[in-house]
Specification:
Elements lengths: L12 H12 L4 E2 H8 L7 H14 L6 E6 L3 E6 L5 E2 L6 H5 L3 E2 L2 H20 L2 H9 L2 E11 L2 E10 L8 H4 L15 E7 L4 E7 L12 E5 L9 H12 L19 E11 L7 E11 L4 E12 L7 E16 L2 E16 L9 H13 L2 E9 L3 E6 L5 E11 L1
Parallel strand pairs: 7-8
Antiparallel strand pairs: 1-3, 2-3, 4-5, 6-7, 8-9, 9-10, 11-12, 11-18, 12-13, 13-14, 14-15, 15-16, 16-17, 17-18
Helix pairs in contact: 1-2, 1-3
GO biological process, one term: phosphorelay signal transduction system
GO molecular function, one term: DNA binding
Pfam families: Trans_reg_C
Length: 408
């Protein structure tokens, strides 16, 4: 077959066998040799070979680079010009001989290279890493805003999604009642803010020493309603401390068959509060656990428990587990650890009673239970005792987590 002209050259068995022998021969092929190969187990006249050679020459006449020459009193020899772009393959079956004349033109080479590049691009586009890059690109962190917590003012970074329009610091500050925004022994703090356009959250670690957060007294507040919540920060500090001293509903059971030998569990815990004017204060008890099985992959566990300050809502529990891959990305120049989680198990424990204050969270978690297959968690800060995560379970909410490492 001529793959450039898309034409087929038909060869008989004898023609295929003779051409094959001429291809593999190192020099001249004798007539007796070609007769024996072209007509095995048969006795034919020398004219049969002469006719075969004549037919082959006619079939090759469109390829002047290929010449079948007669060597007087010796036999025949096949010549292929060194400058030829024809490639002939020495094979021993008729079907392969038909494909032996291949013109590998520049266009064919270019088309092959383009095809390989397209396959590589397609594989990359559908890879886990590309999805991680794509999800990270939805976030920005090139802005900072002033935040007043307990009468102390600091400038804190803001993570926001590209489509969000309202980024003024008042979108966070307005939920803290100014007349009660004072805390004793609140000397300084480090903080982060985040918004996906629906939720405006802040994560605060008080009294940071030499850039290290102790993991104590962490304050995580998320606003889900655009109207000012009027949160009394003094009462909130006392109430949150009292709530967090109660028995924690949220427990993560780490299966001991996850791997052989000792297991190191990297455990993160946070309490996030959702103030809404005129409603009970809702609390989310959040836990994350990572068990590394490789340098940047392993088992992932997350548990969420929702209740309100008067426990009118029977706890809404949502647990997920799966495998994670960890990537380091840059969001507006800030190094961020991205955890891509493929879910393998979900457990949603429906409450017996839901207060109006907690109904928003019931709907959100129920939707996750129905739709989630892959989730992205962002760790935007970490030190020896704490870490700051943006988690997707209750909207894209930033929270400061206490960190513990447990050997199991």
């Amino acid at each position: 077959m001529d793959r450039v002209k898309n034409t087929t050259i038909s060869l008989t068995f004898s023609e295929s066998a003779v051409l094959h022998q001429l291809l593999i021969a190192d020099g001249v092929c004798g007539k007796e040799e070609l007769l024996a190969i072209g007509w095995p187990d048969r006795v034919v006249a020398a004219t049969s070979l002469t006719q075969c050679i004549s037919t082959l020459r006619k079939k090759l006449e469109n390829y002047p680079e290929v010449q079948l020459k007669t060597v007087a009193r010796r036999g025949y020899e096949l010549h292929i010009s060194e400058r030829s772009h024809i490639k002939m393959l020495a094979v021993n079956d008729a079907e392969s001989i038909k494909t032996a004349l291949i013109d590998v033109s520049m266009m064919v080479k270019i088309a092959g290279i383009v095809l390989v590049l397209l396959l590589i691009l397609f594989g990359w586009y559908n890879s886990d890493y590309h999805r991680s890059v794509k999800n990270s690109s939805l976030w920005n962190a090139d802005k900072k805003i002033p935040l007043n917590i307990g009468g102390t003012k600091e400038i804190v970074p803001m993570f926001y999604k590209s489509e969000v329009e309202h980024l003024h610091h008042s979108m966070w500050q307005k939920h803290l009642a100014p007349e009660s925004n004072h805390l004793d022994n609140f000397k300084n703090f480090e903080g982060f803010t985040a918004t996906d356009g629906r939720n405006y959250s802040m994560a605060v670690c008080p009294n940071v020493v030499k850039g290290q957060c102790s993991g104590l007294g962490l304050m995580n507040i998320a606003a889900i309603d655009p109207n000012p919540a009027g949160l009394n920060i003094n009462q909130f500090a006392e109430l949150s401390e009292r709530l967090e001293k109660r028995i924690r509903y949220n427990k993560i059971i780490i299966p001991h068959d996850s791997s052989d030998g000792d297991i190191t569990e990297h455990h993160y815990h946070a309490d996030v509060y959702f103030p809404v004017a005129g409603e009970l204060l809702v609390r989310a008890d959040l836990s994350l656990s990572l068990i590394y099985e490789g340098e940047d992959s392993g088992q992932f566990y997350s548990a969420t428990c929702i209740t309100d300050e008067d426990c009118l809502t029977t706890p809404i529990k949502y647990k997920v587990r799966g495998t994670f891959k960890q990537y380091q990305q840059k969001i507006s120049g800030m190094a961020v650890d991205v955890f891509q989680v493929q879910l393998s198990q979900k457990e949603f424990i429906k409450p017996e009673t839901v207060s109006p204050s907690a109904m928003h969270f019931y709907r959100a978690i129920r939707k996750h239970d129905i739709t989630d297959e892959e989730l992205y968690f962002y760790r935007v800060y970490t030190d020896e005792k704490s870490a700051v995560w943006i988690t997707p379970i209750l909207g894209s909410i930033v929270a400061w987590y206490k960190y513990d490492q447990v050997r199991i």
